[in-house]
Amino acid sequence: MNILFAIATGIMFALGTFQLLRSDMVKSAMGFYILFTAINLFFFAVGAFNGQSPAYVQNVDKTVTSDPLVQALILTAIVISFGTYAILLGLISASARRYKTADLDTLDQLKG
Fold first, then answer.
1. Spatial distance between the Cα atoms of 44 and 39, rounded to a whole number of angstroms
2. 89: pLDDT confidence band, cut at 50, 70 and 90?
3. Residues contacting 46, CB < 8 A, separation 6+
């Protein structure tokens, strides 16, 4: 199962980086979102359940519990990535309205 997570995370990082380097701003934003998702998958793979009882259950029989910090990190990362993605799409929308294009190569040639 760890190999599957490693392969999926690597493919998502590669795809996100490829999309990030495209000249269209919308495709570049999709690359950011794929990278955010790859990071969340990486957190999930690293903090997979490895105890005998879940983290949110009262531990009365002294069994090994899973770490609840990973769950909190994933939820925080999802919220931060959603907010960052919303701001990024807002900036792309404002730039596309102002300059009438979403192509980064065209924006590089504008003066002023």
1. 9
2. very high
3. 70
Calculate the average pLDDT of the chain: 85
DSSP state of 39: H
Report the distance separating Cα 87 and Cα 80, nearest Å: 11
Q: What pLDDT sits at residue 2?
A: 79
Neighbours of 12 (CB within 10 A): 19
Q: Domain 2-49+65-105, what architecture? A: Orthogonal Bundle (1.10)
For 92, counting Cβ atoms within 10 Å of its Cβ (0-12 exposed, 13-18 middle, 19+ buried), the class is: middle
Concatenated DSSP letters of 59-100: --S-PPBPPTHHHHHHHHHHHHHHHHHHHHHHHHHHHHHHHS
